[in-house]
Write a structure and sequence with these properties.
The structure holds 3 protein chains of 3 kinds. By secondary structure, chain A is α+β, with helices and mostly antiparallel strands. Chain A folds into 2 domains: 2-114, no CATH class; 127-277, Immunoglobulin-like (Sandwich), CATH 2.60.40. Chain A contains 6 helices and 11 strands. Chain A is elongated. By secondary structure, chain C is mainly α. Chain C has one domain (18-206): Cytochrome c oxidase, subunit III, four-helix bundle (Four Helix Bundle (Hemerythrin (Met), subunit A)), CATH 1.20.120.80. In chain C, α1 runs antiparallel to α5 (137-170). In chain C, 42% of the residues are buried. The chains are: A alpha+beta, B mainly alpha, C mainly alpha. Chain A binds chain C through residues 280-282, 285-286, 288-291, and chain C through 57-60, 64, 130-131, 134-136. Chain C: Belongs to the cytochrome c oxidase subunit 3 family. Chain C: Pfam families: COX3.
Chain lengths: 291, 695, 207
């Protein structure tokens, strides 16, 4: 009965690992890393699991053995109802987890520093994108190219991407699993995320922080393209003749799920900073407050 | 005064569209019909209960023997009943959500997105505040005073008030199904999403007041338990002779005392924002939503250990009893419990590694979180070593303990993954996280409480639960859990966020279907649990254990009759060992008549608990709907009730020694006539609650 | 256990009334635990105030809002009330003369009401200048903390009035004595909180 159960648990664990290996092939998983950040995260993931096996496996193996050997009815096994302490054993069962946690802790400290989402990535020609979380879409502003997109992030493959984030509504979280981790976007604040795509491709991106009815539809494609294609795309967008002005932005900021990605040929200077500053200024109420 | 303003004065924001039935009448879509169906279940259920009680003429009995009772045992049972009702609702909601995700792949599915938001918010809020908390509070209430040989908790009336406040919160949640809508902001209610600017409806208000009522109740419960354990132990019951369950109850209580106030502060400040136009967590005018996240998780993380520690206590008792052996490394387990309790206050930030703080802060909290794994891992080994050189019996509570050990270890492993900030960045807010915390709380809370329920049921009611249905239910809980949640790990690693009302990735579908099947098996597990209860009640004559010790127990709650008398122990014994009852049985002096009996003073019933329950629910409802006259009236009512009751001096009654002697000697005769049975027969009708001495 | 033993922190009745002393252990310990929990509430409100301090949103800043004179007088009133409550407690423990206890408790309550009145006056004049919680996060933090303390003092005053009535009705029975002891702990606790408010909110704001 119990041995069966333990083996069932193992079966599920194996199924889970198998699922991770196969099922993710076509999915937006960090295990299908397409950039250096996600690749390191994937490496770390398996490393942590492997280290933990030292603690976990003794339980999976030892528990069924103990249960079987010391089941009631097996009179061959030693019965010692008063046995309740063994200092050496106690040293081991404290010592091993402590050791594992010390090692993992060192690893954790190190990896938290190296994989800090705020840390700029190595490489030339960093491209800056300003992402604004709206209900229920992402606006991407390219401050250097003076263009903007909605629900489509086009980046040059092989070049570091620096993303500044904010929100013009409730809290959101920008996540492109195959490129790396997520960071919250919050109104009145600027957060940062640094990613890079190794090779051209189309990568799924999304918001993971619930923000209402349209939440599940708030996703976008990240298109990593060659440098040449990127420049060509910028030129094409600029020529498309549909600028993002303040009025257009106000419409855009209203609750909606766009049918298709949008592209804007021009962006007002400092829009991103104004979206942040809007929440810092007392324009809405309380005019009598003195300085 | 216009008609409209008079109307508003009388019933606040309520209008016809507040009612789920009206909404379904106007728009008979599947989504609205499901909502109306749930509402009618609440209404019909309430009517049926009222009708049955009235028909059986049980109102007086219920009022006198239950609602106004301050007996910790009855209060404990009422907590568990509340928890069972709320568990049923929340499991059904879970099934609906899993169905929605399984069918809503590139399709609308069965419920609208907003309804889906309500489902995950109520599911979470109920499971934490109105299933888990009442369940563990109920079991601690019942068992802890018996184990430390107290006559009742330190403040019996306060205990009844805590129950009343918890019930009033649950009532608000039930009413929200019929009138209005619940919050869609999740169980954590993060602003600014729950602020007036983004959610001006009644949903967040329902959440605020339901949670606040339960939070205040839990604070008082923690206070009550801690004082009881510190002050009401029997002579000789040193702290280090307490059963481990009492230790975990103590640590949980201390956590409640310190960790519930942050929740109360967070919800009340959110209420200030919503009701009085404060700017504490708003996006504009200097509000700071990050402060809410800190306050909430300053409660939220210790809360996890509030939930898990009592289960650790149950497992310690169960494993030791059904291995017929002393608990291995008792002191280590005690220290590990305390270490966990202390560390629980140092890790809250791991709930928002992705908020953009610097790497050193994330690193510190990540390592602190990993450290919690040490004492927890040690405990797992100590439990296995308790079975080592024992004689293990695979009864239902023991099966839960074994399933816990295996499952919890998997959850611990994924916990370490989440504690590593760079890994958290890729699995945070995904179904991986959802799988992880269910992986901790289902074995670490639900299995534990169910084990405790199966273990102590015969003590509370004098007859055993049906073993076969117990095993069926157990099997379903375990199989259902693995099917429902292992796929969520995969989906999370595949990048699927939590709280999705619809899915647009075809490759998620197989996993979602498996998870949905798992959810149905969990529903079947709950069904089997109720079948077990009904069958057990029907067959109770064959499973009575009047002698009181059906499992060859080791601690003192087994040394008295089942069910115990109101005053628990006829004479307070002196405790001389950690397993006092086992020692006495060994020495053949378990059932000695005492030298003399004394009068026993017991607290009288109090109406304060049920009154505050009703007034508390009224206050909450009035605040939700802006019915100001009722809110003011309710607050005055609370004040008046407390003041009036403070004038009562007739609070105790004395049970004469002769009555105590009569009851106790009657029980001793029952014991003398009972047949002592070997452990092989403990699940048969031969088990009258008297254990054969020695093995 | 003997009557001369300390049963709990704070003023013990001891041999002055061994019977009540015996009962007080659990009751007073329980109240200490409650105060601990309440202290957490205030700690978080202080922390929140600290966090919100920068969120003035272009509105008034602390040194424009606070008046040191007012805060200082409030401090004096509240500190004196703690002293008079101390006298009330001692009267209860040693004198067994009811009117002395009633007198000092009455004086304490009067000081309590004076404190509340003064504070309300402060809030009203702040509101008249537009310094209301809806103006900014900083003012919200202020109004979450300081009126919360005032609410506690108000509850203390109502409780004190109830105790005065109960002293009349029941005399100094064990329940009354225990509740006076609890109220005194509550009162001194609020004094300590106020010292925190005075230094963290007012002095720091005006520095």
């Amino acid at each position: 009965m119990t041995a069966g159960m333990a083996s069932k648990a193992r079966l599920f664990a194996m199924a889970m690992v198998a699922g991770l290996l196969t099922g993710c092939a076509a999915s937006p998983s960090f295990l299908q890393a397409a950039g250096p950040v996600a690749a390191e995260q994937r490496h770390l993931f398996w490393l942590v699991i492997a280290a933990l096996m030292v603690v976990v496996l003794p339980v999976f193996i030892g528990l069924p053995l103990v249960l079987w050997r010391y089941r009631r009815g097996n009179d061959k096994a030693r019965y010692d109802p008063k046995w309740d302490w063994n200092p050496r054993l106690e040293f081991v069962i404290w010592g091993v987890p402590v050791l594992i946690v010390v090692l993992l802790g060192i690893q954790l400290w190190h990896s938290t520093q190296t994989l800090d989402p705020y840390k700029r990535l190595d490489g030339n020609g960093t491209i800056t994108v300003q992402a604004v979380g709206l209900d229920w879409k992402w606006l991407f502003i390219y401050p250097d190219q003076h263009i903007a997109t909605v629900n489509r992030l086009v980046i040059p493959a092989g070049r570091p991407v620096h993303i500044d984030l904010t929100s013009d509504t409730v809290m959101q979280s920008l996540f492109i699993p195959r490129l790396g981790g997520q960071i919250y976007a919050m109104a009145g604040m600027r957060t940062q995320l640094n990613l890079k795509a190794d090779r051209p491709g189309s990568y799924f991106g999304e918001n993971t922080q619930y923000n209402g009815e349209g939440f599940h539809k708030q996703n976008f494609r990240t298109l990593a393209v060659t440098d040449a294609a990127f420049d060509g795309w910028v030129k094409r967008v600029k020529a498309s003749g549909s600028p993002l002005n303040e009025a257009r932005y106000r419409t855009l900021a209203k609750k909606s799920v766009p049918d298709a990605p949008m592209e804007f040929s021009a962006v007002p200077e400092g829009l991103f900073a104004r979206i942040i500053a809007k929440y810092m200024q007392p324009e809405r109420r309380g005019k009598e407050g003195g300085q | 005064m216009t008609v409209q303003s008079a109307w508003f004065w009388a019933i606040g924001r309520i209008d016809l569209h507040s009612f789920a039935f009206v909404r379904a009448w106007e728009d008979p879509s599947l989504d609205k019909m499901i909502a109306a169906g749930a509402a009618s279940l609440v209404v019909l259920g309430a009517i049926a209960v009222f009708a049955i009680i009235t028909k059986l003429r049980k109102w007086r009995y219920l009022w006198q023997d239950w609602f106004t009772s301050v007996d910790h045992k009855k209060i404990g049972i009422m907590y568990v009943i509340l928890s069972g009702i709320m568990l049923t609702r929340a499991v059904i909601e879970a099934v609906l959500m899993r169905m929605q995700q399984a069918v809503a792949v590139n399709q609308p599915g069965i419920v609208a997105p907003e309804h889906f938001g309500e489902l995950f918010s109520t599911h979470g809020s109920i499971m934490i505040f109105f299933m888990a908390m009442p369940f563990l509070t109920g079991i601690i209430n019942y068992v802890m005073p018996l184990q430390i040989v107290a006559r009742d908790v330190a403040f019996p009336t306060l205990n009844s008030i805590s129950l009343g406040l918890t019930v009033s919160g649950a009532v608000l949640l039930m009413i929200s199904l019929v009138v209005g809508k619940f919050s869609t902001g999740g169980w954590s209610g993060y602003p600014p999403y729950t602020e007036m600017a983004f959610n001006s409806g009644v949903g967040p208000d329902y959440w605020i007041w339901a949670v606040t009522l339960s939070s205040i109740g839990s604070t008082m419960t923690g206070l009550n338990f801690a004082v009881t354990i510190y002050k009401s132990r029997a002579p000789g019951m040193h702290l280090f002779r307490m059963p481990l369950f009492c230790w975990t109850a103590l640590c949980t209580s201390i956590l409640m005392i310190f960790a519930m106030p942050p929740l109360t502060v967070a919800t009340l400040m959110l209420a200030l924002d919503r009701y009085l136009d404060f700017h504490l967590f708003t996006t504009d005018l200097g509000g700071n939503m990050m402060n809410y996240a800190n306050l909430f998780w300053l409660f939220g993380h210790p809360e996890v250990y509030i939930l898990i520690l009592p289960a650790f206590g149950v497992y310690s008792e169960v494993i030791s009893t059904f291995s017929a052996k002393r608990l291995y490394a008792y002191r280590t387990l005690v220290y590990a419990t305390m270490v966990i309790a202390v560390l629980s206050f140092t890790v809250w930030l791991h709930h928002f590694f992705t908020m953009g703080q610097n790497a050193n802060i994330n690193g510190f909290f990540g390592i602190a979180t990993m450290c919690v794994g040490i004492p927890t891992g040690v405990k797992v080994y100590d439990w296995i070593l308790t079975m080592y050189r024992g004689r293990v019996r695979f009864t239902v509570p023991m099966l839960y303990a074994i399933a816990f050990l295996v499952t919890f270890v998997i959850g611990g492993m994924t916990g370490i993954i989440l504690a590593t900030p760079p890994l958290d960045y890729v699995v945070h807010n995904t179904l991986f996280l959802v799988a992880h915390f269910h992986n901790m709380l289902i074995p670490g809370l639900l299995y534990g409480m169910l084990a405790g329920y199966q273990f102590w049921f015969p003590k509370a009611f004098g007859f055993r639960l049906d073993e076969t249905w117990g095993r069926i239910s157990f099997a379903c809980w375990v199989v259902g859990f693995y099917l429902a949640f292992m796929p969520l790990y995969v989906l999370g690693a595949m990048g699927m966020p939590r709280r999705m009302a619809g899915v647009f990735q075809g490759e998620y579908l197989p996993w979602l279907i498996i998870a949905c099947i798992g959810a149905f098996i969990l529903l079947a597990a709950l069904g089997a649990l109720f079948v077990q209860l009904v069958i057990s009640i029907r067959r109770r004559e064959k499973t009575r254990v009047p002698a009181g010790d059906p499992w060859d127990g080791r601690s003192l709650e087994w040394a008295i009759s089942s069910p115990p008398p109101e005053y628990n122990f006829a004479v307070i014994p002196c405790v001389e060992d950690r397993d006092p009852f086992a020692l006495r049985k060994e020495q053949g002096r378990a059932y000695q008549p005492p030298h003399a009996y004394e009068d026993i003073e017991m607290p009288k019933n109090s109406v304060l608990g049920p009154v505050l329950c009703i007034v508390g629910a009224a206050a909450g409802f009035a605040l939700v709907w802006h019915i100001w006259w009722l809110a003011i009236l309710s607050f005055l009512g609370i004040l008046a009730a407390v003041i009036v009751s403070s004038f009562s001096r007739d609070t105790h009654r004395v049970i004469p020694a002769s009555e105590v002697a009569r009851t106790h000697e009657h029980w001793l005769r029952t014991v003398a006539e009972a047949r002592a049975i070997p452990r092989e027969l403990e699940t048969r009708s031969a088990n009258e609650g008297l254990a054969e001495s020695a093995v | 256990m003997s009557a001369d033993e300390l049963k709990h922190a704070g003023l013990n009745l001891q041999e002055a009334d061994p019977l009540t002393h015996e009962k007080a252990g659990e009751a007073i310990f329980g109240f200490w635990v409650f105060l601990m929990s309440d202290a957490v509430v205030f700690a978080l409100l202080f922390a929140t105030y600290g966090v919100m301090l920068r969120g003035t949103a272009g509105g008034p800043v602390p040194h424009e809002v606070y008046e040191i004179k007012s805060a200082f007088i409030e401090t004096l009133i509240l500190l004196s009330s703690s002293f008079t409550f101390g006298l009330a407690s001692l009267a209860m423990k040693y004198e067994h003369k009811r009117h002395q206890l009633e007198l000092w408790l009455g004086v304490t309550l009067l000081l309590g009401f004076a404190f509340i009145g003064w504070e309300i006056h402060d809030f009203v004049s702040m509101a008249a200048k537009g310094e209301v919680p809806s103006r900014s996060g900083y003012l919200s933090g202020f109004y979450a903390l300081v009126p919360m303390h005032m609410l506690h003092v108000t509850i203390g005053c109502v409780w004190g009035m109830v105790m005065l009535v109960q002293i009349r009705k029941f005399g100094l029975d064990p329940m009354v004595k225990i509740n006076v002891m609890r109220l005194s702990l509550f009162w001194h606790f609020l004094d300590i909180i106020w010292i925190g408010i005075f230094s963290v909110v007012y002095l720091q704001g005006l520095a």
